[in-house]
Amino acid sequence: MLNRMKNICVFCGSNVGTDPNFEKAARELGALIAQSGRGLVYGGGAVGLMGVVANAVMQHGGRVIGVIPDFLNQKEIGHKGLTELIEVKSMHERKLKMAELADGFIALPGGIGTLEELAEVFTWAQLGIHDNPVALLNVNGFYDPLVQMLQVMVERRFLNELTYNMLIESDSPADLLTKMESYQAPQVYKWLDKKQS
Asked: Is this prediction's pTM over 0.90?
């Protein structure tokens, strides 16, 4: 549950996108994370929605830990004003370190990298590797096509409905955090039940 969460990991784009509501949601989420007394874990960039959410947390007195591969430190312009910026050697190390530091995961709008990060932690939740909430901040329907694809996977028996229902979704940062607060991981995971996908 959110009460035990010390750090929330946010996956999001290194661009701000075309909709100003993306930035607005990132700022609101950052402020709420800080005001809740929790820290932000993210990809360490100073640009795009990454920079927006990190700056919002810091502007409201929160802690921010960035994790960035050394070869991306220049491309994504590693944020120099964070509580801590951890430099790693690879994308694999980055994702593992972020997961180790986090007690919950939120995906804001982003590109293929954001989608890949989300899919990995969602898969880990399905397998019982962690029991932390995984959530979509579905700003202006950005993730509607993904949700529809997941529903197709359930209909076609490639994704178990139990797993599908583990993914938390809202278009409101405050509502999303409330839903994460009441999340309880199911006790039956894919590796325990061969009928699941």
From this structure: yes
DSSP calls for the chain: -GGG-SEEEEE--SS--S-HHHHHHHHHHHHHHHHTT-EEEE--BSSHHHHHHHHHHHHTT--EEEEEEGGGTTTTTB-SSSSEEEEESSHHHHHHHHHHH-S-EEE-S--HHHHHHHHHHHHHHHTTS----EEEE-GGGTTHHHHHHHHHHHHTTSS-HHHHTTEEEES-HHHHHHHHHT----S--GGG-TT--
User: The domain at 2-141+168-182 falls in which architecture?
Assistant: 3-Layer(aba) Sandwich (3.40)
Please write the tens of the pLDDT for every residue from 119-166: 999 999 999 899 999 999 999 999 999 999 999 999 999 999 999 999
